[in-house]
Amino acid sequence: MPYYAGIDIGSTAIKIVLIDENDAIVGQRVAGSGSMFYKYAKENLQQLGKDLGIGMEEIAYIVSTGYGRKLFKEADETISEITANAVGARKAGEKFGTIRTIINIGGQDSKAIGLDEEGNVVNFAMNDRCAAGTGKFLDVAAAKLEIDVEELGEYHFRASGTPLAINSTCAVFAESEIIGLLGNEHSREDIVAGIHFSIAKRIIRLARKVGLNDVVYFDGGPALNAGLVAAIEDELGRELAIPDYPQITTALGAALLAREGYRFTEEANG
Ligand code: ADP
């Protein structure tokens, strides 16, 4: 049976999803992008195949997407992450109903995508000039607070009182602001909640540009942070649709497009 691969080479992490003929996910892998996107993407695809007992020759079609997509020479096709994200969200978010807005926070950018009833992209807004609303900022802030990004959620829920305001719109200044707050003996919990609310406000402002309709889907690595999810939901006044594996939606979309691409080429070749 042939398999189809979607590889999302992000600025921070490489995400790989393998699907079968029936669009079922047969394997997935997340690894750091490091400095050698191409090398790591190839190694991780091979490793995933090995773990699953699937040879590279059994992968009929590969679609790459994300920041480093053009560097992956083995790809049969490259696709923008906006399209791949929308296709993946439609599939991973089936259980939530019609998704009309996607909020994606990645390692170094954040974006909002507006979809029509059929799931086609109608508009999008992106913020890649300022790191303060991105995963990178969460990584830097967590390091400064000497905690792991995976722990940010727990710290958020232990915060007491009004979350602190983090006003800087640039990650470098925000970092100094965090140092100042620590110096004033604010707890790490309250600072973490402040960071989450500041990111939440920023992403909602971005999402308003594309419209906040029906179901709002949130994905990207930072969607694994329950504290950030709660802050966005508080600011938005409603629940977000979070898929089971929020970091791999775009890779899943690329894999689904690989399956389509393969069928299309087969038909064209008679
Ligand atoms: P990109 O596609 O731009 O490489 P991702 O969507 O993979 O970005 O997101 C990477 C970010 O996700 C990291 O910078 C980190 O802040 C965050 N992240 C990854 N895993 C977790 C986790 N388990 N808990 C909280 N945050 C996480």
Structure description:
The protein has eight helices and nine strands. It is of the alpha/beta class and 270 residues long. The strands form two sheets. The protein has a five-stranded mixed beta sheet with strand order 3-2-1-4-5. A four-stranded mixed beta sheet has the order 8-7-6-9. The longest helix is centred in the C-terminal third of the chain and has 23 residues, at 188-210. The two termini are 20 Å apart. The model has no long low-confidence stretch (mean pLDDT 94).
Provide a brief overview of the structure.
The protein is of the alpha/beta class.
The structural class is alpha/beta
What does the overall shape look like? globular
Spatial sequence of strands, sheet with the most strands: 3-2-1-4-5
Write down the Rg.
19 Å
Overall average pLDDT: 94
Helix content: 40-55%
* Unreliable stretches covering 5 or more consecutive residues: none
Produce the secondary structure layout.
Elements: E1 3-9, E2 13-19, E3 25-32, H1 37-52, E4 59-65, E5 77-78, H2 81-92, E6 99-105, E7 110-115, E8 121-127, H3 135-144, H4 152-157, H5 171-183, H6 188-210, E9 215-219, H7 226-236, H8 249-268
Parallel strand pairs: 1-4, 4-5, 6-9
Antiparallel strand pairs: 1-2, 2-3, 6-7, 7-8
The chain binds adenosine-5'-diphosphate.
Adenosine-5'-diphosphate (ADP) is lined by residues 10-13, 66, 106-108, 135-136, 138-139, 149-150, 220-222, 224-225, 247.
